[in-house]
Amino acid sequence: MQFEIFTLFPEVFTPYLQTSILQRAQQRGLITIHLHNIRDYTTDKHHITDDEPYGGGGGMVMKPEPIFAAVESVLGSPPPCPVILLTPQGRTFNYQIARHYAQFTELALICGRYEGVDERVREHLVSDELSIGDYVLSGGELPALVVVDAISRFVPGVLGDPEGAFDDSYASGLLEYPHYTRPAEFRGWKVPEVLLSGDHGRIARWRREQALLRTWQRRPDLLEKAALSKDDWSFLEKLRQTQPIFAEGDQDEI
């Protein structure tokens, strides 16, 4: 799979892309990531990529010319693949969107900066807009890394476990169950006995129930869309009688 990333700060990407899973995936030719500096596609001697907004107001707006020139020079016109703008105004990125885009062989990502991009980029170049949450960052570089990482996990061979991406939180519509490793006892805290039993049936049931419990407590909204069995519903009914749901105000403010 190939990613074409358009940004004013390509140096932001290098440390993360040269680490761990993404580095190995690139070395093995499973994914290819090209970084394009939008500033290289300006035509003035000062390489200006932003200007004051029409109508006044604070901040600067990314100009359309260098963005169009960068994308069309690399991909052609019209681009043959999805062109995604990373922006706080986009739809919230999630597991399903990552899995959807993993089906493509090529994706283009545009990293917004400053007050945003000229609206004509949204209207005539971009095919989708994504946000990674209800907050604002200084630019789209970190969200682009999030999108690349999440999508790459679905590319066959990227993860050591072929089923790894499909066991993650949200894969089944639920949060993932708790994990434990050696030692079996640490500071008096023991690994649940069922995980040491060798009984794969019991372990599978425990993990499913723990996933249901964790989702019930932390993200009960996910249960509305999850594919649940009769046993799941029976377990949830017991939870309703015995377990509280975490309210937003229950957690300490950060």
N/C terminus separation: 38 Å
- Approximately what portion of the residues adopt beta-strand conformation? 15-25%
Poorly predicted runs: none
CATH architecture of the largest domain: 3-Layer(aba) Sandwich
Q: What's the CATH first level of the largest domain?
A: Alpha Beta
Alpha plus pi helix count = 9
Write the layout of secondary structure elements.
Elements: E1 2-7, H1 14-17, H2 20-27, E2 32-37, E3 50-51, E4 61-62, H3 64-75, E5 83-92, H4 95-101, E6 106-111, H5 119-124, E7 128-131, H6 141-152, H7 164-167, E8 185-186, E9 189-190, H8 200-218, H9 230-242
Helix pairs in contact: 8-9
Polypeptide structure, described:
The chain has helices at residues 14-17, 20-27, 64-75, 95-101, 119-124, 141-152, 164-167, 200-218, 230-242, and strands at 2-7, 32-37, 50-51, 61-62, 83-92, 106-111, 128-131, 185-186, 189-190. Helix 4 links the parallel strand 5 (83-92) and strand 6. The strands form 3 sheets. The protein has a 5-stranded parallel beta sheet. It has a two-stranded antiparallel ribbon with strand order 3-4. A two-stranded antiparallel ribbon has the order 8-9. Helix 8 crosses helix 9. The protein has 254 residues and is of the alpha/beta class. The two termini are 38 Å apart. It folds into 2 domains: 2-152, SPOUT methyltransferase, trefoil knot domain (Alpha/beta knot, 3-Layer(aba) Sandwich); 185-250, Orthogonal Bundle (Trp Operon Repressor, Chain A). The mean pLDDT is 92.
